[in-house]
Amino acid sequence: MKNSTVKAVLQDPKLLQEIQISGWVRTFRSNRFIALNDGSTLKNLQCVVDFEALDPDLLKRINTGAALRVMGTLVESQGRGQNVELQVKELEVLGDAHPDQYPIQPKKHSMEFLREQAHLRIRTNTFGAVMRVKSALSFAVHQYFTSNGFYNFHAPIITGSDAEGAGEMFRVSTLDPKDPPLTEDGGVDFSKDFFGKETNLTVSGQLEAEAYAMGMGKVYTFGPTFRAENSNTSRHLAEFWMIEPEMAFYDLDANMDLAEDFIQYVVRYVLENCMEDLEFLEKRLADEEKTKPQAERSEMALIEKLRFVTDQPFKRVTYTEAIEILRNSKPNKKKRFTYPIDAWGADLQSEHERYLVEKHFKCPVILFNYPATIKAFYMRLNEDGKTVRAMDILFPGIGEIVGGSQREERLDVLVEKMRQLGVDEKELWWYLDLRKFGTAVHSGFGLGFERLVQFTTGMGNIRDVIPFPRTPQNAEF
Ligand code: 4AD
Ligand code: MG
């Protein structure tokens, strides 16, 4: 007999039908009621066994975490909380989980504890809900771009360039670190390395996406990116996934329009397709909020927060306007920020970003036209000669969720900028070629996928929205 899924059975229950389900035991009550979960949905299927008819040795093996195959008849349930249940006729324990050893017992576990059990935590309601929402978001991303005339393109993972010019790269090398070949002046001889030069894991697929946009029009990449930044925060990972659309003939305004429409679309998709998981996550978040001091609690419930993003335009503000607002604000009792904004040109800290979104504008904010000095080399210089056509989208509870810009399409201006910032022209000869041959206005942005998932699921720590998080001093799994 073919296996059904709990989701399919509960969505469209056919009473008196014989079905077979395989899954994992969540709980076993009164030697009679098995709550069986197969990961297809938050809900468990209640399976009722006749313990008097069951082999006592088999009965002992029905423990939380064990894998079972059950076969039986679907009947109306008298119990509360479910409409149907499975009257079990046949039961097979596929894999045991010893109660003294299996760590995910039916009780509340802390997020810290579950991080140590990253291989098993997917068997909890919270991680099941988060990962189902994440999967739906990923589908919505591809759907949005495909139906809006974009082509999906895969940027390389190993590259010879530093797309952000921030030097936060993981090196890729096949040389023996203890005994590398040396050049005559004593440095490591990378010409002997696998690729004959220094290479690294990509920090962003942008530069390659630019090349493809300048041939296919509108492209997007959705893949892993890597940053060796030593940020031990709840919003940083060393390996995260980024969605990067790049569009020929788009200026900064068109770029901002696209980013806003795109984010609203994917969040709306989740609201329309994942309500059961969202309601569970909302309740989880509300319980977590209760443990915080009043002043730190979020004023909005999760689903309300999502609607807040889908139902109104994002506020667009220039960097210069934002600095004025921040200088004149009294963010807390001490009436000052930990990092006060002293002068135009200062980079914004996350406390500033969150103040603008959560306290001042109280809606998602797109900040644009940043000082050239605090942004990457490839951004289009404005006519004022000191700001660039950059945009960051700031979200409540998250801060920066998107970073993007109109790109510098003028060869001479770009070369000059690279010289000023010490970006190697020889390494990026191909990138400069794009300005030599058929250059045109173009734009794009990068959205940190895990930050989007954090926002939509209400999870406080980015480590809890990726299966096996990579963070400093941590790659256990
Ligand atoms: O602002 P970033 O660095 O922009 C770029 O990489 C551009 N090349 C993108 C482009 O224009 N195609 O990164 C983009 C986004 C951030 O806004 C943030 O959401 C996410 O990537 N991000 C991270 N997410 C998790 N962990 C980290 N360490 C992240 N660093 C950036
Ligand atoms: Mg950024």
UniProtKB/TrEMBL annotation:
EC number, as in UniProt: 6.1.1.22
Recorded superkingdom: Bacteria
Coiled-coil regions listed: 271-298
Catalytic activity: tRNA(Asn) + L-asparagine + ATP = L-asparaginyl-tRNA(Asn) + AMP + diphosphate + H(+)
SUPFAM superfamilies: Class II aaRS and biotin synthetases (SSF55681), Nucleic acid-binding proteins (SSF50249)
Predominant location: cytoplasm
Domain Aminoacyl-transfer RNA synthetases class-II family profile intervals: 131-467
Keyword field: Aminoacyl-tRNA synthetase, ATP-binding, Coiled coil, Cytoplasm, Ligase, Nucleotide-binding, Protein biosynthesis
One Pfam match: tRNA-synt_2
InterPro entries: Aa-tRNA-synt_II, aa-tRNA-synth_II, aa-tRNA-synth_II/BPL/LPL, Asn-tRNA-ligase, Asp/Asn-tRNA-synth_IIb, NA-bd_OB-fold, NA-bd_OB_tRNA
GO MF annotation, one: asparagine-tRNA ligase activity
Subcellular location, record wording: Cytoplasm
Subunit structure: Homodimer.
Family to which this protein belongs: Belongs to the class-II aminoacyl-tRNA synthetase family.
Protein name as catalogued: Asparagine--tRNA ligase
Source organism of the structure: Robiginitalea aurantiaca
Name of the encoding gene: asnS
